[in-house]
Specification:
It contains 15 helices and two strands. By secondary structure, the chain is mostly helical.
């Protein structure tokens, strides 16, 4: 696929949006990739990293290897994802602590629009497609109701968390960061990125690479053989995740660490009019609309031929 420099700049911008989404517990970078029109190319590119690719390197040289690996696409996308994820994770941490209603409102609007744009790509509706959608919604909703585990920073656990979370990060609707919270690894990774703890970052990255290479093959196969069912399942994932990003929550269980800092473990969605504090409903609705329109812009960009 021939691309100009401007095309790769657009891919980097999409990577920035993916990284920002993945940094927020409740939003999936896979959703952004899907809406912006690069999801199936991303999955196909990742799944093509195999022994055949390295045979090409040794038999035909670096240029043939780079073309087969779709290297320009990967580099352009990764530049955006990595820069955005590391920087936005700090911002997201601040916003989640100080302005949770506002940040969740923006992403709620974003995800509502995503349901429409992913769902409309299903070309044929039947009973099995509807069942797949309902199953995806139930699974995602159940995941959003799980309580977070206590923080764990062992090397083996961090490696496993990386492998599991990266699978969620490339699935539309399933938030990798939220999976990290459930596993008790989000704070460990957040602190490692903040403190530039190279060892922990490398262990997590190693697990993520293994998980990504393994899971991408399954996704590629599903898209090839069960395209509509896979889309329906992913649409259900996105729909079920709305519970997590609902802006108004009541905290049922808290965890207090050794320093006396309290963090929510289990929360329940409530009506904005039952919210005990300032519900900020005017700003919240405005940000929902902004998030909704953001997806329309991304979809318009993604619909253009790269």
């Amino acid at each position: 696929m021939q691309r100009r420099l401007l095309d790769y700049l657009v891919i980097t911008l999409k990577g920035l949006a993916m990284g920002a989404a993945d940094a927020v517990p409740g939003v999936s970078g896979g959703t952004i990739a899907f809406i912006s029109g690069i999801y199936e190319e991303l999955i196909s590119t990742i799944s093509n990293i195999n022994t055949s690719l390295f045979k090409t390197l040794f038999s035909k040289g670096i240029r043939a290897f780079w073309l087969q690996a779709n290297g320009n696409f990967i580099i352009a996308l990764l530049m955006g994802v990595i820069v955005s994820y590391i920087s936005f994770m700090r911002l997201a941490k601040y916003l989640l602590e100080h302005e949770p209603i506002l940040i969740w409102s923006f992403f709620f609007g974003l995800i509502v629009a995503s349901i429409y744009f992913v769902g409309k790509q299903i070309t044929k509706w039947n009973v099995s497609v509807i069942i797949a959608l309902l199953i995806g919604a139930c699974i995602a909703f159940y995941i959003t109701t799980l309580p977070a585990l206590n923080n764990n920073d062992s090397s083996a656990f961090l490696f496993l968390a990386g492998a599991i979370a990266i699978c969620a990060m490339i699935l539309p609707g399933i938030s990798g960061s939220f999976i990290l919270i459930i596993l008790g690894a989000y704070k460990t990774l957040s602190d490692a990125l903040h403190d530039f703890d190279i060892k922990k970052i490398a262990i997590f990255t190693g697990g993520a690479v293994i998980g990504l290479l393994s899971f991408s093959h399954l996704l590629k196969w599903l898209f090839k053989h069960y395209h509509n069912l896979t889309l329906a399942l992913l649409t259900g994932f996105i729909f079920g995740s709305l519970n997590k990003v609902w802006p108004w929550k009541e905290t049922l269980t808290w965890h207090t660490n050794s320093k006396g800092i309290k963090t929510p473990v289990l929360q329940e969605s409530i009506s904005p009019f039952s919210f005990p504090g300032e519900n900020q409903i005017g700003f919240a609705i405005s940000l929902m609309v902004l998030g909704f329109l953001t997806i329309f812009i991304l979809e318009k960009i993604g619909s253009k031929k790269q």
